[in-house]
Amino acid sequence: MNVRGLAGLAAAAALAIGAVAGCAKDDTGGSTESGVALVKAGVLTTCTHLPYAPFQSKDASGKVVGFDVALIDLVAAKLGVKQEIVDTPFEGIKSGADLNSGKCDVAAAGMTITDERKKVLDFSEPYFDATQALATQTGKEVKTLEELAGKRLGVQGGTTGEEYVNAQVKQKGLKVEVVSFRDLAALQQALATNQVVAAVNDLPVWNEYIKANPGKVVVAAGFDTGEQYGFAVKKGNADLLKAVNDAIAAARTDGTYDKIYAEWIGAKPAA
Ligand code: GLN
Fold first, then answer.
1. What is the rounded distance in angstroms from the CA atom of residue 208 to the CA atom of residue 121?
2. The dihedral sign for the CA sequence 144, 150, 155, 159
3. Can you tell me the distance from the alpha carbon of 141 to that of 68, in angstroms, rounded to the nearest whole number?
4. Which atom of ligand 1 is nearest to the CA of 55?
């Protein structure tokens, strides 16, 4: 067979595979009344990485709740479906892999919008401002990364906090031992049990931890990284992105955003 014949066969095979895949998708996927495609019929499936209170964590009954959950509930309501949450490592969320493979429709994980992530995800309009913060045990405060020379500093793997610390260490030639933990709970546990002398993560999660464990930990220093969180959809999923943006915009206008903010974050910092 000549080359053109082979190419034709390959094209036919690809079409056949496409047809099968399309069929399989219709069996499990669905779309809303307004025509927004969903990976699972009747629900808006959200990927997140637990725990990340106050944005998403399990309450006493095991239900996932938080600021992000409340905002995505608004999107689900707008689409006429319920939200279903999938807990999965942050790496698959920020790389776009989970959205691309159809594990979920939307990612909501206190996730900072970055240029690198924008290449693999489509982000909503920013919905929350955050900075990085350095936490220590009470009475053991350090104000700078320089003071941590020869000591262990904890970060959370795959996050902007880890990136910030590594960039500072490299740029300033710091002699800090940076230790990476798989999730926020492991990082906070490490700080509480002296495995690290300080830990870097987003400011709101430290504030929440301090509220839940008064007196143990303090925010000793802040690093104004000017981060903003965004929800993400699979690249090109313009219909769902619009639904997300519309829901956030409506919530900002009608006061729902402020209510959710007060419930999960607390009083707004003076502008
Ligand atoms: N905001 C940070 C980031 O995007 C941390 C997110 C998280 O750990 N869930 O990297």
1. 28
2. positive
3. 31
4. 9
Tell how far the Cα of 198 is from the centroid of ligand 1, in angstroms.
18
3-state secondary structure of 187: helix
Alpha helices in 136-202 (DSSP H): 160-172, 184-192
Looking at this protein, which amino acid is placed at residue 248? I
116-154 residue pLDDT tens: 999 999 999 999 999 999 999 999 999 999 999 999 999
Q: Ligand 1 center to residue 125 CA distance, Å? A: 16
Query: Is residue 49 lining ligand 1, measured as CB closer than 6 Å?
Result: yes
* Structural Rg of the chain based on CA atoms: 22
The token pair at 266 is 């607390």
Cα of 48 vs its chain's centroid, Å = 6
CA torsion sign, 121 to 124 to 127 to 130? positive
pTM over 0.85: yes
